[in-house]
Design a protein that fits this description.
By secondary structure, the chain is of the alpha/beta class. The protein has 9 helices and 7 strands. Helix 1 packs across helix 8 and helix 4 packs parallel to helix 6. The longest helix has 33 residues. It binds nicotinamide-adenine-dinucleotide (NAD). The site of nicotinamide-adenine-dinucleotide has 27 residues, from helix 1 and strand 2. Nicotinamide-adenine-dinucleotide binds next to helix 1 and strand 2.
Length: 258
């Protein structure tokens, strides 16, 4: 469906499981060259990579903790050393870190949430910028940065997730400035903003809570990681979205309509 994604070099942060992994698999099916990342290699990394190769892509794993700026720069350097450049960056690494109500937030928690959700997105994009610029120059088409927002970025987040929600609101906002100042570089910036997706992110919820959340979603169920992936393919494809930048695509079963 997306022929122009074949051989595109796609770096996906935080992609050893969940939405990132499903997205990596979708890109591999399009024949892309995919870099997956996590703090450390998952046990089944060889199988994951072999499956992506068998699906028609090329795939490699790059370890790196993106809570630190040095980790972001190293990941980009490792990916470029392997694949020779970057055409598409997907800033997916992120998470709750934990749940803390206002009364119990401390400096360490504030830093951890900001580092994982904001610093990682900012510093990985910064490190990738020269390579994305080069990609656009060489191809004569746009390069693409796709970041993962959240429904929490609009609603403020669930119990104990105020900082996470605020960090995702920051993600939703910061790309506006980059659109203003880096469109001239041939780079597009867009966001996929999931609703409630059935991944390890919700491992703390029992069946009763899951039912309650599902009943508030017009689709009546959690989303699947694989249902997020096509939105990334769309934003990565110059042929499909070459004139689309600065946008947020909400993939949430109707759970929230901004
Ligand atoms: P997940 O927990 O299944 O996956 C998280 C991924 O991030 C894993 O691959 C993990 O290895 C990686 N990761 C965690 N910390 C990292 C670090 N410091 N450095 C590098 N990688 C790291 O979660 P998911 O649900 O697939 O979440 C993916 C993204 O989607 C996150 O940004 C999350 O905030 C966002 N999101 C998820 C939901 C949801 O309902 N699941 C909703 C909205 C947004």
């Amino acid at each position: 469906i997306f022929p122009d994604l074949k051989d595109k070099r796609v770096l996906i942060t935080g992609s050893t499981m969940g939405i990132g992994l499903a997205t990596a698999q979708a890109f591999a099916q399009q024949g892309a060259k995919v870099g997956i990342n996590g703090r450390k290699a998952p046990e089944q990394v060889d199988t994951l990579l072999a499956d992506m190769q068998a699906a028609g892509g090329e795939a490699a794993f790059f370890a790196g903790d993106l809570s630190h700026s040095a980790g972001c720069a190293q990941l980009v350097a490792d990916f470029v050393a392997h694949f020779g450049g970057i055409d598409v960056l997907i800033n997916n690494a992120g998470g709750l870190v934990g749940r803390k109500p206002l009364e119990s937030i401390d400096d360490a928690f504030f830093d951890a949430v900001a580092d994982l959700n904001m610093r990682s997105m900012l510093m990985t994009t910064q490190a990738a910028l020269p390579h994305l610029r080069e990609s656009a120059k060489q191809s004569g088409q746009t390069a693409s940065v796709i970041s993962v927002g959240s429904i929490a970025g609009y609603t403020g987040g669930g119990p104990g997730a105020s900082l996470y929600g605020a960090a995702k609101a920051w993600v939703h906002n910061v790309q506006k400035n980059w659109v203003d100042f880096h469109t001239k570089d041939g780079i597009r910036f867009n966001i996929v903003s999931p609703g409630t997706v059935d991944t390890a992110f919700h491992a703390d919820k029992n069946e009763e809570v899951r039912q309650r959340i599902s009943s508030g979603i017009p689709m009546g169920r959690f989303g699947l990681a694989a249902e997020m992936a096509p939105a990334f393919l769309f934003f990565a494809s110059h042929a499909c979205s070459g004139y689309v930048t600065g946008q947020i695509l909400d993939v949430n079963g109707g759970q929230f309509m901004p």
